[in-house]
UniProtKB/TrEMBL annotation:
The gene is GLT6D1. This is Glycosyltransferase 6 domain containing 1. One of its GO terms (cellular component) is Golgi apparatus. It comes from Macaca fascicularis (Crab-eating macaque). GO terms for molecular function: hexosyltransferase activity. The lineage of its organism: Eukaryota, Metazoa, Chordata, Craniata, Vertebrata. InterPro entries: Glyco_trans_6, Nucleotide-diphossugar_trans.
Amino acid sequence: MNSKRMLLLVLFAFSLMLVKRYFRNHQVEELRLSDWFHPRKRPDVITKTDWLAPIVWEGTFDRQVLEKHYRRRNITVGLAVFATGRFAEEYLRLFLHSANKHFMTGYRVIFYIMVDAFLQLPDIQPSPLRTFKAFEVDAERWWLEGSLVYMKSLGEHITSHIQDEVDFLFSMAVNQVFQNEFGVETLGPLVAQLHAWWYFRNTKNFPYERRPTSAASIPFGQGDFYYGSLMVGGTPHNILDFIEEYLNGVIHDIKNGLNSTYEKHLNKYFYLNKPTKLLSPEYSWDLAFSPPPQIQYVKVAHDSHRKL
């Protein structure tokens, strides 16, 4: 081997070493659960699942550690909301005003607002780092449920652009109001919301779909928690995977003359695909009920008595 060729190989090896060192120095180290999550501080509630996923309650997380981690990652978070129907305009105004104030403060956020042709968007001055994007949804009349229209539209937007714009995505119902900070403690690959009512009930009575021929069916004696349908979160890829499974499940049920609800399909998905993080009922408390002692700090509230 001549000296010139040897020199080229040495230079290449040195360059490769520098590249590896650069990526090693600039790689954001992933947090261990023990770095930020302290379940023993809330002995009054369930703080871990059987598959060791954290259940986030007030007092269980170290916000400073999480803030440092996610600021180094320089993340962008998406929040998608669907607003149609009789009370949608009123709900959307309250939802966006409160989200603009409390949702992921200090981080880049893109609000994806999906509305029908007749809805007047509220006049909101976005806070710094906030972007609002509105999309008109053509509601095909043959869809029997608004959730179908929304999920179909959201899946299309994730595929076309959302997956390239955000690191994490939440899909939330419009009839909610943020009351306190909804921060980075909620982020994860696949995030589920514990149902505010059913968390405090006997697991044997969970209202899962029980008809064996339904794609949403969960057999008697099985199931982990009952998850609420007002919020689902995770990476865009995982949200898209859920949407695809949900739409396939609905098609399956229609062919079999069934019509199971969105929430029951959601629970079947989380039964088969365990969430990596669960949010306590503090993150979606129903105003129809007085909070029990376990609910120390309501982050998001909704009114189940009013329907869209």
